[in-house]
Design brief:
Length: about 290
């Protein structure tokens, strides 16, 4: 269904619906702030849209499924990470291919770069995963979350990116989350915020959607400095649909699907405060500007 006035594709056109894998990241530079939303379209494959400051959403080129044969069951994660070679922070997207390998893409401007295989961690088919940046003594790495037997396994990844020996840069976090309230059917989002003087991450927050048996909603657990705190449901996100994908960015914005009063599905946005509580922001714009 097209918007006759502006002819922009709607969310319905690009198949962002309940259960659609979503991921979101944001980049802050001196001259602009950009939010990138990545999703798996069941017709056209991996897609990306971006929004600069409060401007219109625009579709990004170079994310065709022919370039990146992503598995139909794959979840998607994205984050920002330091590229040691160029000394720049780059957006990365993580997904599973048809061979169940875990792949990572570096994004350059609004085009996807080459994908490379992440060795040393092979998620089970259709398992949910999420990524968040992680500072450690001034070095920006990546924290990777995935569900394993109703628990959350936490794996770290530090730069450089895309090198032949990247296996050596994976490490397992010995303080992983081991809470049985996390079912295999949950979708995971993650974000990190607040840093100490030496660059260490103060908070890492994992958010999980609840399955149908729990009537939807979102469960959250936070790691403050070196300790995971007890998880709890987010009252402000109780309307999130069962099995909805969930995404979060470093601006503490969270995205998931709800059903509005008319019974239609909407992609909705919340903001997390310092205590981890969620406040509704509103429905994500129903149109995306094409290039």
């Amino acid at each position: 269904m097209r918007d006759v006035d502006n002819n922009y594709p709607s969310w319905e056109d690009i198949n962002v619906k309940n259960g659609t894998p979503l991921s979101v990241a944001n980049e802050v530079r001196e001259d602009f702030f950009q939010t990138s939303l990545i999703w798996l379209d069941d017709k056209t494959g991996l897609q990306m849209a971006y929004q600069r400051k409060d401007g219109p959403w625009q579709l990004a080129d170079g994310w065709a499924s022919s370039r990146f044969p992503i598995a139909s069951y794959s979840h998607i994660a994205s984050s920002w990470i330091e590229d040691c070679d160029s000394c720049m922070r780059k957006e990365v997207a993580v997904f599973q291919n048809l061979d169940n390998d875990l792949l990572m893409i570096n994004r350059s401007t609004n085009d996807a770069g080459e994908a490379f295989k992440i060795s040393g961690n092979r998620p089970s088919q259709a398992s949910s995963f999420a990524c968040a940046p992680r500072w450690n003594k001034g070095v920006l790495g990546l924290t990777y979350f995935t569900d394993v037997n109703e628990a959350i396994q936490v794996v770290g990844f530090t730069p450089p990116l895309g090198t032949a020996d990247n296996t050596s840069y994976w490490y397992v976090d010995t303080d992983a989350i081991g809470n049985s309230v996390f079912p295999d059917s949950a979708d995971i989002a993650a974000l990190s915020y607040g840093y100490t003087e030496d660059g260490s991450t103060v908070y890492t927050q994992a958010l999980l959607t609840q399955p149908q048996s729990d009537s939807g909603g979102v469960w959250t657990v936070r790691r403050k400095e070196n300790f995971w705190q007890s998880g709890s449901p987010l009252d402000g996100m109780s309307d999130v649909l069962s099995y909805s994908a969930i995404a979060a960015n470093q601006n503490r914005r969270v995205y998931a699907m709800i059903e509005n009063e008319a019974g239609n599905l909407e992609l909705f946005e919340w903001e997390l405060d310092d205590l981890g509580d969620a406040t509704a922001v509103g429905t994500v714009s129903t149109t995306i500007m094409g290039n």
